[in-house]
User: Fold these one by one.
Assistant:
Number 1:
Amino acid sequence: PIFLSRIESKIAFISADDAASSLYELGLNVFTGPINVASSRPMSLKECMRHIEKIVGEKIIISDEQNEDNLSPYNISADWFMDCSRLEELGIELESIEEYLPRMIKLLNI
């Protein structure tokens, strides 16, 4: 079982490929100030669990009670994503979570 205090919380990720290509693309642009780099559309933990279940072929057991054995490192009590609109304004597009998450899960499920 896994404990998630708020399964509807949204989170954003970035793939290693997108991180590398973003750094390259940013190097070709002229801009000042901070910029966030992550998937532009965050995904709820519930959606993430559905992708895992579909690929692994097993139902994830969600626990109602937290203990030291079932606390996920992704247990977030609020949305956890960034505004990446500046990245998009520079014309840098990243792959969506829906596109790369299944590949990542399959690689980890070998």
Number 2:
Amino acid sequence: YKSKPNNNSLTPYKEFDFTSATEILSITTSSGVRDYGGGGYILELRGYIEDLKDKIVDFQRVRWVGNRTRSAILEFSVYNAQVNIFSTVTCVAEFIGGGVVPWYRIETLR
């Protein structure tokens, strides 16, 4: 993942600007129902936990995820130093027909 450089956006939040897969050097995510081409609207969660909670509340208030959202994809990595293992986790919630179809994948490497 490569961060997108700051541009002169029309919105106060960079998270409302579409980011293409080539801008962030991303690949397609395959999930239970559809494949997603790697681009989209990105909410980065970095920093202190209280600041992240406030950020999530702000985005709930402005309805960042709404009735036109096809899916929400959460990706993160973890490292266990005791056993020297990295894992990447991909969680997908697909909004289909008024419901949510969950999907996940955990990949571990040493």
